[in-house]
Structure formats: structure tokens, C-alpha cells
Amino acid sequence: MKLETEDALLSGIPIGAGQLAHCDCCNVCLRPNHRVEILVTIVGTQIDVATTRCAVCSQGSLSKETERPCLLARGRVAASVSSSGRSKLILSGASVVDRAE
Q1: Which domain does 80 fall in, by range?
Q2: How many domains does the chain have?
């Protein structure tokens, strides 16, 4: 599962509809090229963004109490277009910082 998860991150996980998203901690507006950190939960083959944090609010590692399968990744916000032609923001150029499996 490790390789599949990292491949999914590198292909761009959606973090917002339209052309903006917000930090879940301080609510700052996140736009293309902003650095972000996301906490991703993994249930079977389902990968969901649980938290999106701006560079200022990023924590750098998972809490020691974390028990659910998840990972922490860093990357940049990038603009993209969905298959239906709608704009969205994705995590681009992601790297895994920490994981709990």
C-alpha cells in the first residue's frame, strides 16, 4: 500500500474546489504555489484529506497518539481542472513527512 499511496499523492490530491482553499487552523486563504501540509487518512483504498494546514500552522510530524492509518505530506497548492471541466486545487509535488500504518 505504501507505493500506491505515494503515487496518489504525486498525482495530485484535491484540496479545494474552485481556485482557493483555506487552512483548517488559521483559515488563511491558500492559493496556487502556497506551501501546505496535509493529513491524509487511509481506509482500504480510500484516501481522504483530513486536515490542510498552511506553512505557518504546519506541525511537521504526526501526534504520538495517532492510531488510524494516515500519513502527513507536504507540497504546494496547484490549480487543476477536473474531468468535468471544473477548476480545483490539488496538492502538487508532495512528499511524505510521517506515516502511521
Answers
A1: 1-100
A2: 1
